[in-house]
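Anyone up for a design puzzle?
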């Protein structure tokens, strides 16, 4: 297990993560801090806790949208694969009938 030091809203944290995932975690922290900064600049009267909640909700919403889109893409691919399989089965059946 690896450990990295991160900072969110000026608070320092020591976070554990799987070996080799340190850069990915740091990139996530940087993205989160950027989102927090954007929210704070647009809504200066919010407390830090409110900003964090809004950032987390935004990320959850984006994840939900991406998951829905991914599911739709997988379903379309499954349909295309099924059509190809059906076409192959039909051609094989015709070829076997001829022989």
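Challenge accepted. My sequence:
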């Amino acid at each position: 297990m690896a450990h990295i030091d991160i900072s969110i809203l000026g608070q320092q944290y020591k976070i554990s993560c799987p070996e080799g995932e340190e850069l990915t975690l740091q990139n996530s922290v940087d993205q989160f801090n950027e989102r927090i900064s954007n929210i704070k600049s647009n809504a200066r009267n919010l407390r830090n806790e409110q900003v964090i909640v809004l950032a987390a909700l935004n990320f959850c919403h984006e994840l939900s949208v991406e998951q829905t889109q991914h599911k739709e893409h997988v379903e379309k691919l499954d349909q295309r694969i099924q059509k190809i399989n059906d076409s192959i089965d039909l051609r094989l059946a015709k070829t076997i009938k001829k022989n």
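A detail worth pointing out: Strands lie at 2-8, 11-17.
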